[in-house]
């Protein structure tokens, strides 16, 4: 069983090791393939850099990986990494894709813009189980709490038939003893997401912006509200599908004649 670990924070983020350790302890072989540069806010974009028609990939160790984990830096957004992994770009098709652990929350309807969630959605659409994990801090101090919650979530994901669903988990940046627990939560009206803004070909001017709504106080039972009160949250998301519950009126092409 193979687990692909990716993220949108880039290959140098310590959050990759959190999910790599969780996957290894669960008995998976671990492959880390993450963007060589930060791709926050990339959603499910399929952007990548090529040379001679080949995606640019180089071996590079992410910090803190468990022994035996293979690690690659890829010049691509995380969704493209998940996409090409399904077609053998890095070896056998993964059985599971873990995305994160992200620096900063991915809650509410703003997850539409998240590269972390975008990678998980892409994996699900291509027949791989997936889990996205984020921590509610730009520079987390308590990765061990995220690791504890992610291990619990992975245990459930690995033994549950999710179909077209992915699980999105957010964890407060608190010591394990201060974690109130894990609760399933609906999406906030907007929520929060990070995005990277940079001048073309000039990474020194890159900024990471945080877009956040007010639902932490106005929607206390949403994922954003519960996270702010010290709960880890879990939200099942349904990958894009055709909804036939409402009928769209058809159009006869012959009506345009004459």
Automatic annotation (TrEMBL):
It holds the Pfam family SurE. Signal peptide: none annotated. SUPFAM superfamilies: SurE-like (SSF64167). Residues 4-187 form the Survival protein SurE-like phosphatase/nucleotidase domain. It comes from the Bacteria. The keyword Hydrolase applies. Its EC number is 3.1.3.5. It is an enzyme of class 3 (hydrolase). InterPro entries: SurE, SurE-like_Pase/nucleotidase, SurE-like_sf. GO terms for molecular function: 3'-nucleotidase activity; 5'-nucleotidase activity; exopolyphosphatase activity; metal ion binding; nucleotide binding. The keyword Nucleotide-binding applies. It catalyses: a ribonucleoside 5'-phosphate + H2O = a ribonucleoside + phosphate. Keywords: Cytoplasm, Hydrolase, Metal-binding, Nucleotide-binding. Coiled coil: none annotated. Belongs to the SurE nucleotidase family. This is 5'-nucleotidase. It comes from Isoptericola variabilis (strain 225).
């Amino acid at each position: 069983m193979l687990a692909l670990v990716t993220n949108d924070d880039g290959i140098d983020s310590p959050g990759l090791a959190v999910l790599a350790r969780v996957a290894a302890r669960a008995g998976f072989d671990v492959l880390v393939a993450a963007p060589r540069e930060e791709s926050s806010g990339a959603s499910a974009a399929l952007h990548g850099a090529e040379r001679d028609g080949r995606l640019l990939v180089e071996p590079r160790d992410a910090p803190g990986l468990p022994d035996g984990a293979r690690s690659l830096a890829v010049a691509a957004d995380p969704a493209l990494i998940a996409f090409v992994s399904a077609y053998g770009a890095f070896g056998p098709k993964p059985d599971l894709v873990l995305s994160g652990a992200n620096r900063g929350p991915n809650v509410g309807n703003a997850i539409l813009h998240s590269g972390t969630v975008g990678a998980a959605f892409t994996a699900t659409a291509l027949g791989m189980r997936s889990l996205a994990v984020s921590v509610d801090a730009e520079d987390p101090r308590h990765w061990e709490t995220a690791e504890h919650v992610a291990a619990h979530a992975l245990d459930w994901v690995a033994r549950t038939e999710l179909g077209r669903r992915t699980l999105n988990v957010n964890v407060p940046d608190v010591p394990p003893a201060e974690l109130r627990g894990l609760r399933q939560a609906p999406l906030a009206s907007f929520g929060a997401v990070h995005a990277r803004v940079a001048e073309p070909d000039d990474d020194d001017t890159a900024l990471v912006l945080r877009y956040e709504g007010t639902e932490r106080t106005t929607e206390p039972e949403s994922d954003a509200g519960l996270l702010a009160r010290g709960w880890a949250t879990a939200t099942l998301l349904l990958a894009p599908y055709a909804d036939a519950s409402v009928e769209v009126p058809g159009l006869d092409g012959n009506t345009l004649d004459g």
